[in-house]
Design brief:
alpha+beta; Lipocalin; 2 domains; ten-stranded antiparallel barrel; globular; lyase
């Protein structure tokens, strides 16, 4: 009897060990299945639109490209930021472009509307540009504190006529881009410098970098404006003395017109040529 009692007590730990092992294996399988589901979860149409809107936003410069090839490229500054959101969820961004030395004087101002492509089109994201009813009210919109910007409902009312639409697709695996696309064949009407139409290409890269290429053509297909060598490459400005210097120059030009301020502005410009 004693031996039988000892035998039973010895078998219990083994049974509990097997039970614990089974529980652990079950939890591992459940956790693995959950993780696999998360990893393989398909990106929705709106997810793509959000990624593109986020990548377009921010202050970017073509400084590196202008340094490599000053004969064909300028150092432009573009600044894009969220302005409002439409009822259907479309993101509306404010966009402006200026020469880096005069950011307070943008020569191009637009609203960009970012949303998923219609289901009947073979693309992922649609980026449309719109004119602004009163561009002076929006100059340096992204530089201002939020309480000094037009209200979201005012932004919606200031969206004017449509200008262009670019249709983006996800880039194939292995390419350096995330999304790429262009205007439809034939582009959009344009009359600047003898053009009859123009085309626009956009590539969204990693690290919030983008490439843009706008070109105008006449009736015979000759390019009459826009860079010919390749797209402009815009990269976010690094957190460096370049940014600090640029902002100090901008601030001093607004509050002090002494000889010292002009000397400091000249120093900033020469330092970053």
């Amino acid at each position: 009897m004693a031996k039988g009692s000892e035998s039973g007590s010895e078998s219990d730990p083994n049974g509990w060990s097997r039970a614990r092992g089974l529980v652990v294996k079950t939890l591992v399988l459940i956790g693995g299945a959950f993780l696999l589901k998360r990893l393989t979860k398909s990106t929705t149409r709106w997810d793509h639109a959000k990624i593109v809107a986020r990548s377009l936003s921010g202050e970017k410069f073509s400084r590196e490209q202008a340094s490599r090839d000053p004969d064909n490229y300028f150092n432009f500054r573009i600044f894009t930021c969220p302005a409002t959101e439409m009822v259907d969820g479309s993101k509306v961004l404010y966009f402006e472009q200026a020469f880096w030395r005069t950011p307070q004087k943008p020569f191009r101002q637009r609203f960009l509307m970012v949303k998923p492509c219609p289901k009947d089109l073979k693309c992922d994201v649609e980026v449309s540009s719109y004119a602004i009813r009163d561009v002076e009210d929006y100059k340096n919109f992204c530089d201002r504190p939020r309480d000094q910007r037009p209200l979201p409902e005012e932004v919606i009312g200031d969206i004017a006529e449509p200008l262009t639409t670019i249709y983006l697709n996800r880039c194939e695996r292995g390419k350096r881009c995330l999304y790429e696309g262009s205007t439809p064949p034939g582009g959009f009407p344009n009359s600047w410098n003898g053009a009859t139409h123009f085309t626009s290409e956009l590539m969204v890269l990693k690290n919030n970098e983008i490439c843009t290429w706008d070109r105008g053509y006449d009736d015979e297909g000759n390019q009459v404006w826009g860079v010919k060598e390749g797209p402009y490459e815009f990269k976010p400005a690094p957190a460096s003395s370049f940014n600090a210097c640029k902002r100090w120059c901008r601030l001093i030009s607004l509050v002090d017109h002494s000889i010292l301020s002009y000397m400091y502005k000249f120093y900033c410009q020469m330092k970053h040529l």
